[in-house]
């Protein structure tokens, strides 16, 4: 949360050093947890010694890291970040949480609607302003169509208002459906279920409904989400359809750095 603001004010080196520390700390913590599991299972002395040395190394690294935070990073932030910026930073701090817990009294300490007003800014000409950034209509359209999922949005009046156009749609959608009542877009045998889902969303009883089917040997995940504004008012329902066939078959892991060694189409 803090690093982007520091970099915006021309303070780049402390965040870069902290990133390196974070990576080293994460690797040591992973090693420590692995050794703990081995010692609990085997009680081998050589693993106990390795565990102790790893713990000492991690402890020393954390002490040095905290020192750099308290004496370099945080003073730099206090001198550079503006009071107005701190308002938005504080809310995001509370939303993402703290190490290792978030005190209950800090959660939603400032109402989101008030925070939105404090952070409100006029969008540059030709761009759409969102709480988390700005996009041109062209960018937004491209972004939604690049998603590997089918999205359909039904407004609060049960009318189909939008659908994206991914490269490969799972269920056919045509522009003729726009402005049509959602009840007329489903087979009669499942109409009562759709109606119950929308009714539960409108009442605030449910926020999600999900189903899965096999279609042409593909495993298809279908989810409905209630769409609400910051005050919880019902705005409509979003249907998301995704092909999970390949995802279900994933095993092990492939990290970001592994991409360089892979032949990706």
- What portion of residues belong to β-strands? 15-25%
Coarse shape: extended
Please write the CATH class name of the largest domain: Alpha Beta
CATH topology category name of the largest domain: Beta-Lactamase
**Order of SSEs, N→C?**
HHHHHEEHEEHEEEH
Low-confidence stretches: none
What is the radius of gyration computed over CA atoms, rounded to a whole number of angstroms? 25 Å
* Strands ordered across the widest β-sheet: 4-3-7-6-5
- Taking all residues together, what is the mean pLDDT? 85
Biggest sheet features: 5 strands, antiparallel
Report the end-to-end length measured between terminal Cα atoms: 34 Å
Fraction of helical residues: 40-55%
Shape-level CATH architecture of the largest domain? 2-Layer Sandwich
Give me the CATH superfamily of the largest domain: PAS domain
Please count the helical segments. 8
The total count of strands amounts to: 7
